[in-house]
Amino acid sequence: MTPSDGMNLRPSTDREGLRRMPARAIRDTFVISDLFRPGEVSMTYVEVDRAVVGSAMPLSASLALPTDRRLAASYFCERREVGVVNIGAAGWISLDGVRHDLDRHDSLYIGRGVRDVVFGGGAPEDPAKFYFVSYPAHATHPNRLVRKDEARVIQAGDQKTANRRVIRQSIRPGIVETCQLVMGFTELEPGSVWNTMPPQTHGRRSEIYMYFDAAPARVMHIMGEPSEPRTVFMDDGEAVFSPSWSMHSGVGTADYRFVWSMGGENLDFDDMDTFSLADLR
């Protein structure tokens, strides 16, 4: 596959840089808003942990996952692993000619070394919408399709604090063997609007949220340090990444879903620092 130059580059910043940023600059730095373009593959290279955040929205024709000159690879997965969640209609992904059918909310892990990744299925009036996140991989692990009902389910939160939610861990230890990627999605129950509250950080991993099934609601995403939080409003189908030093939380104007993904030094879900509400300023 010939390398392309279609991937956007997203540099990050440090704590001091975020403190000085106006609202527009926060969006331009941390929010990925050009996902889910009909009939296209979209990719953004995030300098934090060298993640690639992307989407594929095939219509009448299938779409191949291209590589990019920034990856210095002859094909995308030459040194990378990929996690995919389908948030649209039923579709399929072919991995070196082997087809995997994904219903809505199913996940697919793609291991290092897969040469040809092709997205297909759906229809123009009801398309499949594949969201993917990729990190560098040091080893090769088997591809694995994970159905929604095969994910590990965690009930969290409380209706009294408006954060009752269902966490579905699909790409995680015990289900899929990976190098550094963990991935899944969270569903807010009707009447609940807060996610990940109290907020937390992962000192050895970055985290990426992609909000969906939110429209016409919007989500106010909170990031930065507890002593000086910063906010950005998120629309349906937008992603936001948090460096390891940044907390990540959000509140919506109605219930919503979001795909979360992490990559970094380990795969331990409990490796986090949680702050109390009193820490927020």
Question: What topology emerges from the helices and strands here?
Answer:
Blueprint: E1 8-10, H1 15-20, H2 23-30, E2 31-32, E3 41-46, E4 51-56, E5 63-64, E6 80-86, E7 91-95, E8 98-102, E9 107-110, E10 117-123, E11 126-127, E12 130-136, E13 144-146, E14 152-156, E15 165-171, E16 182-188, E17 194-195, E18 200-201, E19 205-212, E20 219-225, E21 228-234, E22 238-242, E23 247-252, E24 257-264, E25 273-274
Parallel strand pairs: 1-3
Antiparallel strand pairs: 2-22, 3-4, 4-12, 5-10, 6-9, 6-12, 7-8, 7-10, 9-13, 10-11, 14-15, 15-16, 16-24, 17-23, 18-25, 19-22, 19-24, 20-21, 20-23
What does this structure look like?
By secondary structure, the protein is mainly beta. It has one domain: Jelly Rolls, CATH 2.60.120. The strands form five sheets. It has a seven-stranded mixed sheet, with no helix packed on it. The chain has a seven-stranded antiparallel sheet with strand order 2-22-19-24-16-15-14. Strands 5, 7, 8, 10 and 11 form a five-stranded antiparallel sheet that branches. A hairpin with a 4-residue loop joins β3 and β4.
Task: Write a brief structural summary.
By secondary structure, the chain is mainly β. 5% of the residues lie in helices and 44% in strands. The protein is built from 2 helices and 25 strands.
